[in-house]
Input
Amino acid sequence: MVFDRKDRRVTQALARWAEVAPTLGFQPGAFRHKLIWQKDEKTRSHIVLRLKGPRALIIKQVTQGAADKSLSDTVNALRDAHQRLLSHTKAHAPEVLFSTETGDFIVMTEATGRTFEEHVNKGRTHGAMLKRVGAWLSAFHGSGPLERRTYQPSFMVGHIERMQKLVEDDPTLVAEPDHFIACCKAVPKLAEAAEGRQTYSASKHGDFNVRNILLGPDGETGLDFKPPGSAPVGFDIVRFLMDYAELFQPLPKGQLLTQDTLDAFFNGYTLVDPDDPAVRFLPYVQLLNDWKAIPSDPQERSWRQRARMANISALATTAFGAE
Output
């Protein structure tokens, strides 16, 4: 990815850093900066800078959506995760050193390591990394209150039925609409096996995917938490595993997740096992959510979306038994 080094947002962020640095005991001129991420969309625009100097730091500045309360809620979620994981030797979350009241400008410690996705792209063995990811998520879920709960899939069934109706009314909303609708129709039957079984609810990460965890020499670090909330632990588990399956996993037969994928991940994750009702049911929901998020027009898709759509279509055929 090529970034615009003259992005005016960088100048704005560095000006804000110059004001904040002395309050943290730093001289702003003692740091070199590098733009490592940028996004510029209609509803959200932000940049991420890496600062190298007396300490390795990260700056994140949001220049659209700054009045959105979810920004400050996200900072609170990160602070909570960092505090909860302080006692763990391998599981970490970045420390927030400074945040504006709105959460539109934050300074945090830089975590060491590469994202799971970067490791995969460099040819690292998947199984060992999946185990590490599972161990981090197990530590994160286990660091807060766990509530034994009877799993009720009806909410997700209703969500899928509403998506199905939208696509029936306007087939241009998704790629391969007939295939999508056929898969939606299979969900209520799949939900029956999960109905009324026991699971655990915990504080959720909210956006746990292959780019939101770093694997480094000092352990694993979760990134980009969503606002605080609780959910069945399968929510985060499935969000990650389906992101992995749609991008990197070899195509399984008759299912969405291969046994190798499940075995590796649950060698690290210990709070529930692969037979957990949410873990068994939610992959089908996640696949359809990810499917609907991809532009129906192939010309409007990024290279990542094109690769994901090809795998989603293949996974849906083998797992739902519908074409």
